[in-house]
Specification:
7-stranded mixed beta sheet; membrane; coiled coil; 3-stranded antiparallel beta sheet; single chain; alpha/beta
Length: about 375
């Protein structure tokens, strides 16, 4: 009887702990202050969630990192861009590490005090004394592909440009300025982007100009974008792995609650069983939409890779080969079925170079015809 009472008390305590943990998570996710408006999670009018959610819905892969170390580790992956929001809040040591790094970076300062950011000087227009500019549309006035975004709202300040740098959206009274700037890293191996119109990307302003399109045009050349909000206490430590940041304290509490549950209820785990997990196949519309996004930004090879991957998945399924089959096996099987040259099929399915819209259209058309021909051969 005494043991049963103790067990009941333990279960009650466990339930109380779980409720407290869940309440903490709920309050943490809903009690967003002005300080975290730019975190990418905030749906308030002064938040930036709309910018990121719209990007993800259009095929861009945008991840939000809670720490600079995690963001830096993710950005080391090939074809990644680290977007540092409010970088002027970071410690000097972290800014120095970013300055000397060879990862692609985009800086979105909140204020004009950005001289700490890779020694980047800024220009304050006359209206800066009024704290906020009178909304006005400014043109790109540059020949960069980014200019396709069209006009944007007047930013609070501008970056001063140098001869070797590519800038767009200059101030009317100073042509050596830019609201959007592209340059190279300290050692010239990585890209650096700057945008001074962060306040025009808020949920309440995102539809008022072409600034969202400008950001998406910049991000579109990357396979993944990491969004990180600067924190004055966030020191960047080289060598720290992604795994060390994957389980914050709240998840350790949940794991501890799970262990207590197992102990209290006296459950035993059953033997492990192996089973074939389902393969998640993205929708055709998503794949083609992403390919169109790459094409729009003239990243033809990425677009071609997406088309090839999708058609290879369909073709290997048609001829009864696994998706992991090597290109020689696939080309030979298709050649036996269609009578086409194995060498030409290898080039079509894996190697043909694509450098413009015409070549990309021809590749897509040839792949579609090959898929139809295989289907016709199987039917007969």
């Amino acid at each position: 009887m005494k043991a049963k009472k103790s067990r009941t008390m333990l279960i009650a305590l466990l339930v109380f702990v779980l409720i407290a943990v869940l309440f903490t998570i709920f309050m943490r996710s809903n009690n967003r202050t002005e300080e975290s408006d730019f975190s990418g999670w905030n749906y308030h009018k002064n938040g930036t969630a709309a910018l990121i959610n719209a990007a993800n819905s259009h095929g861009l892969q945008v991840k939000r990192a809670d720490s600079l170390n995690l963001a830096y580790a993710l950005a080391k992956k090939p074809n990644s861009l680290l977007v540092v929001v409010r970088p002027e809040w970071l410690p000097a040591a972290s800014l120095d590490t970013l300055k000397n790094s060879e990862i692609d970076l985009m800086y979105l300062p909140v204020s004009g005090w950005s001289k700490r950011i890779e020694n980047r000087a800024v220009y304050f227009p006359s209206y800066h004394d009024k704290f906020r500019p009178v909304p006005k549309s400014i043109a790109p006035r540059c020949s960069q592909s980014i200019a396709k975004a069209g006009n944007i709202q007047t930013p609070d300040y501008y970056f001063l440009t140098k001869e070797s740098e590519l800038g767009c959206y200059p101030n009317d009274h100073n042509p050596n300025t830019a609201a959007w700037l592209s340059t190279k890293s300290l050692h010239g191996k990585a890209n650096r982007f700057y945008f001074s119109g962060l306040t025009s990307l808020l949920n309440s302003n995102i539809l008022d100009g072409g600034q969202a399109s400008l950001i998406y045009q910049t991000w579109g050349q990357y396979e993944q974008v990491i969004w990180y909000l600067g924190n004055p206490n966030d020191l960047l430590t080289e060598g720290e792995t992604i795994e060390s940041k994957l389980l914050p304290g709240i998840y350790w509490l949940l794991f501890l609650a799970f262990l207590v549950t197992v102990f209290v209820l006296g459950r035993r785990f059953t033997p492990l069983m192996s089973e074939n997990l389902p393969t998640i196949v993205p929708a055709t519309e998503t794949i083609r939409g992403r390919a169109r996004l790459y094409r729009k930004n003239k990243v033809y090879e990425h677009s071609a890779q997406i088309f090839r991957a999708w058609y290879l998945q369909q073709i290997t399924k048609q001829i009864g080969l696994p998706r992991s089959a090597d290109k020689i096996t696939v080309a030979k099987a298709v050649s036996d079925l269609t009578g086409q040259s194995q060498i030409e099929l290898t080039k079509l399915l894996y190697e043909r170079e694509v450098n413009n819209d015409q070549e990309l259209n021809k590749l897509q058309k040839d792949l579609a015809n090959l898929k139809k021909e295989i289907a016709y051969g199987n039917a007969n």
